[in-house]
Amino acid sequence: MSTTVASSVSYGQLLAQNKNFRWLWSGQVVSLLGDWFNLIASAALLAQLTESGLAIGGLFVVRMLAPFVMSPIAGVVADRYNRKRILIATDIIRGITVLGFLLVHRPEDVWLLYTLTAIQLGTSGFFTPTKNAILPDIVKPEELGTANTILSVTWSTMLAIGAALGGLVAGFWGIVPAFIIDALTFVVSAVLIWQMTYQQAEDSINADKSASAAITQYLEGIAYLRGRFDQFVITLLKGANALLISAGFQIIQVSLAETTYVLGEGGGISLGLFFGVAGIGTGVGPVFARYITGDDDRKMRWGIAIAWLISGTGMWTVSLLGPFWLSLVGTFLRGVGGGIVWVFSTQLLLQLVTGEIRGRIFATEFMIFTLMSAIGAGVVGWALDGALEVTTIMRIMGTAPIIPAILWTIWTVRTTGVQAE
Predict the structure, then answer these.
(1) pLDDT of residue 401
(2) 13-199 belongs to which CATH class?
(3) For position 421, what pLDDT does the model report?
(4) Is residue 27 a contact partner of residue 190, using CB atoms and an 8 Å limit?
(5) Which residues pair with 4 in a beta bridge?
(6) Are 282 and 339 spatial neighbours (Cβ–Cβ below 8 Å)?
(7) Which residues partner with 296 through β-bridges?
(8) How far is CA 133 from the centre of its chain?
C-alpha cells in the first residue's frame, strides 16, 4: 500500500504559521545543546578520574542501553498519558539528574556518574518516542513531512554545534560549567514546551491505567507490528544503520583522530571535525533528498535504498586513509546516507501508524536502535583491539550496506508494485 501526502508546506511557512511546532522545536534545540555538553563533559571527567579507555567505553554502553531498557515502558506511557506533560516531566527529571554530576569528584565516585547517566538517558528513552508520537497531534497532515525533517535536521545541526561548544566550554572553563549549562537547558526546554497548546486524545484519557492494562497494551503494540510486516521492517531500518555503520564509526573516528589525523591535543580538533562533518551530512542529506521525493511513500522507499549505497561509498572513501579532507568527504557521505535512512523511515511510520498506538511503535523502534547501537559499537571496539586493521574494518563496514540495500529494494518492489510499471 502506498501513502502519499499530496502537498506540503515550506520550512519557513511551518515555522511562521504553527506556533505549537515552534515551541516543540525550540525546546528540542535547547535540550539537544545540553545533551552534547553533557556527553563531552562526562567523557572528560571519566578520563580524568580513571585514565581508562574501558571506563569511557562503559559510559557509551550505559548511554545506549539505558533507553533500550526503558523503551517498552515509554511506549505504553506515551499512548496512555498526556504527551505534552511527559515531555515536560522528562526535561525536569533530566535537569535535576545532571546537577548530580557535580557531586562526582573522586575515582570512588565513578559509580555515581554511571548511575546518573543511566537515569538521564533512561529518561530520554521516554522523551524521544513521545516527541515523535506527539508530532502528528500538533501539525496538519500537509505539515508533517516538513516538521519531521526540521526536527531531524535539528538533531544533526546540534550535534555539530553542541559538540564543538561543549568542547570549548569544558576546555576553557572546566567541566563544572558544562554540567550547569546542561541542567539549565533542560529547564528552558520544559518552559518552552509548556507554551505549546495540546489536547490529549479522549481515548487515552479514559484508558485503563492499571499495570495489567499496561502489559496488555504493550503486547497489543507487538501484535500490531506482527500483523503489519511492512511497518515492522521500517522499524528495523535505524537499528540496521546503527549496527552496520553509524555506531561503530563513532569508535573508529576516535581511533583515526588519535593515530592517523592528529590535529590538536590528542586529536581533539580532528575528532571535532569528524563529528561536525557527520552532523552536517545527516542534516543536508535528508533536506536535499526530500526536495526530490517530497513525502511520497514510494519515492522515499527508493531513496532509502540509494541511501544505503551512499553510506557504503562514504565508508570505503574513509578506508583509503588518504588526505584528511578526503576522509572528511567520506564522513560527509556516510552522514548523508544515514540521515536519509533516519528521516525517511520516521516519515513512513508517521504516515502509516495510527495515533492511538504511535507511541508504542516509536518506542519499539527506539529500543531496537539503541540495542543495535550498543552491539555495533561493542563489535567494532572488540575488532579494533583484535587482529583486524582499521582499514579492513572500514571496508567490511563499507560493503555491509549492500545487503540491506538489496533486501530493501526487493521489499520495496514487492510493497509498491513498481515491477508492474
Answers:
(1) 93
(2) mainly alpha
(3) 37
(4) yes
(5) 296
(6) yes
(7) 4
(8) 15
